[in-house]
């Protein structure tokens, strides 16, 4: 078990890759929010339902709430249903896994998604792990390197078992 923990920690994505993931996912989120606002405005014009007007033209507090809701929802849906990956993680070849090397549970993904809206979460990466990684007991790993190391360890263990038998 300790060996797999070392493999996870050793293959963590670099700070630069994490920053690229954040930037790319924010671009995607801005596009999604723009489309949702445009659709809301069109629906308001057609239906005159106040909610649709308020969605894209509400006060600052509403914009913060709806923005954080969309932010959490994006990360939860992507990481929970796309095997620990977002659009950016597909582009950069990274993936979210539990610290023990397994697929994160839905609870871990919920914790991870909600932790992102804590003020200054982004600055928490100046330490060893960011808060949303630490609090959810997850890590973002370089998938290609991680899989190669797991494969190599598996082959070495299989070789040792063959020689014993």
Overview of this protein structure:
The chain is mainly alpha-helical and 165 residues long. It is built from eight helices and two strands, in the order αααααβααβα. A two-stranded antiparallel sheet has the order 1-2. It is elongated, with a radius of gyration of 20 Å.
List keywords for this structure.
165 residues, mainly alpha, 69% helix, 6% strand
Secondary structure layout plus pairing:
Elements lengths: L1 H9 L4 H33 L2 H8 L2 H22 L5 H6 L1 E5 L7 H10 L15 H4 L3 E5 H22 L1
Antiparallel strand pairs: 1-2
Helix pairs in contact: 2-3, 4-6
What is the percentage of strand-forming residues?
Answer: 5-15%
**Spatial strand sequence of the major β-sheet:** 1-2
Q: What is the makeup of the main sheet?
A: 2 strands, antiparallel
Give the overall average pLDDT. Answer: 89
User: Quick one: how many beta strands?
Assistant: 2
Q: Which series of helices and strands comes N to C?
A: HHHHHEHHEH
Shape descriptor reads: elongated
Unreliably modeled segments? none
**In which range does the helix fraction lie?**
55-70%
Q: How many helix segments?
A: 8
Describe the structure concisely for a colleague.
With 165 residues, the chain is mainly α.
């Amino acid at each position: 078990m300790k060996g797999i923990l070392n493999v996870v920690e050793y293959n963590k994505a670099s700070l630069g890759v994490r920053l690229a993931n954040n930037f790319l996912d924010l671009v995607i989120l801005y596009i999604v929010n723009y489309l949702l606002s445009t659709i809301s405005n069109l629906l308001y014009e057609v239906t005159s339902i106040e909610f649709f007007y308020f969605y894209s033209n509400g006060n600052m507090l509403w914009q913060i709430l709806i923005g954080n809701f969309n932010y959490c929802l994006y990360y939860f849906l992507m990481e929970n249903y796309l095997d620990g990956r977002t659009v950016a993680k597909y582009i950069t070849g990274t993936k979210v896994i539990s610290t023990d090397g397994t697929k994160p549970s839905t609870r871990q993904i919920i914790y991870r998604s909600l932790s992102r809206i804590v003020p200054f979460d982004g600055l928490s990466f100046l330490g060893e792990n960011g808060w949303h990684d630490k609090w959810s007991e997850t890590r973002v790993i370089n998938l290609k390197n991680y899989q190669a190391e797991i494969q190599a360890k598996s082959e070495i263990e299989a070789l040792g078992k063959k020689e014993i038998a």
